[in-house]
Specification:
Layout: E1 2-4, H1 7-14, E2 20-25, H2 31-43, E3 46-51, H3 61-66, H4 71-79, E4 85-87, H5 91-95, H6 114-117, H7 121-136, E5 140-144, H8 148-160, E6 166-170, H9 190-196, H10 198-210, H11 215-227, E7 232-241, H12 242-246, E8 255-263, E9 266-273
Parallel strand pairs: 1-4, 2-3, 2-5, 3-4, 5-6
Antiparallel strand pairs: 7-8, 8-9
Helix pairs in contact: 7-8, 10-11
Bound molecules: adenosine monophosphate.
Length: 274
């Protein structure tokens, strides 16, 4: 593993390489991130992992301030994997003189769920990912299904901007009780951690109910259940067909349940195919 804070140094290393895999992250690495990195290693000659907490995608200053950062530990974890290239930029290296959110028009799907609850979030994500993709020109870029709406956003971005990269979606890695791994999980205290187990419980319950009930009945039942849980604040629960969600893409029909909530002050999101 070698870490660089200048993208120009990395470009020199990869410009003659056959296939480059890019794994964008915000650090505080866990097994979810590592699964993306391992997949990238198995499919590319060189792999770049970026670690950057992108201020443009936070719609809440406090959330940005409190976002867990642990670069020393991240580099130690990556050391053990293989000879990957780690990009750890400062704001100036990534944005140069232009630290501004680009305004995209991705249509309806950026106005629901995460797009609705976190105004401007997807413009911030697309801005930084477009920068990284143009910077390194990777053959493949890896994103987790845990952030499913984000995965659709990136696929739409690539198609609209006609970028030559293949976007690889990777399955969600979970803790033993089913909680999706997330950098934010370490901010949960022990009672909140127990309550967080409800996220996957509700998603699994939705999957079961949906086999014999309508979408509306399932939603009603899940929302009612969620409202009864103490210290669990539901932000949204949705059941959506991916082929409708993505609009601009030609995704196959697939029904997924999506949830976002706050346990104490910690925001958690998850989704499963139902
Ligand atoms: P983040 O550092 O949270 O921005 O995540 C970086 C990438 O890792 C994103 O593409 C996420 O969707 C993905 N990711 C985060 N958590 C998981 C997980 N539990 N399983 C699989 N991928 C994940």
């Amino acid at each position: 593993m070698r870490a660089y804070s200048s993208h120009k140094d990395i470009i020199k290393l990869v410009n003659k390489v056959d296939s480059v895999g890019l794994v964008p992250t915000m650090g505080s690495l866990h097994e979810g991130h590592l699964s993306l990195i391992r997949k990238a290693i198995s499919e590319n000659e060189k792999v770049i992992v970026s670690i950057y907490v992108n201020p443009l995608q936070f719609n809440n200053v406090n959330d940005l301030k409190k976002y867990p950062r642990d670069i020393k530990n991240d580099l130690q974890r990556l050391e053990a994997i293989s000879d990957i290239i780690v990009y750890v930029p400062g704001d100036n290296d990534i944005y140069e003189k232009d630290k501004k959110k680009k305004k995209y028009n991705f249509g309806h799907f950026t106005k629901i769920m995460e797009g609705k609850v976190r105004p401007g979030h997807f413009d911030g994500v697309a801005t930084v990912v477009e920068k990284l993709l143009r910077m390194f020109n990777p053959s493949n870029a890896y994103f987790g299904e845990k952030d499913f709406q984000q995965l659709i956003l990136i696929k739409t971005l690539v198609k609209k901007q006609e970028l030559k990269v293949s976007i690889v979606g990777c399955e969600t890695i979970r803790e033993d009780d089913g909680l999706a791994m997330s950098s934010r999980n370490k901010l949960l205290n022990s009672s909140e951690r127990t309550i967080a187990g409800n996220v996957i419980r509700l998603l699994k319950k939705a999957k079961k109910l949906y086999k014999s009930s309508t979408k509306e009945e399932t939603k009603f039942n899940i929302i009612k259940d969620a409202l009864m849980i103490e210290n669990f604040n539901l932000e949204y629960f949705e059941i959506l067909d991916i082929s409708e969600l993505s609009g601009f893409l030609e995704e196959e029909k697939e029904i997924r349940a999506f949830i976002a909530c706050k346990v104490g002050k910690i925001r958690l999101i998850d989704n499963i195919k139902i």
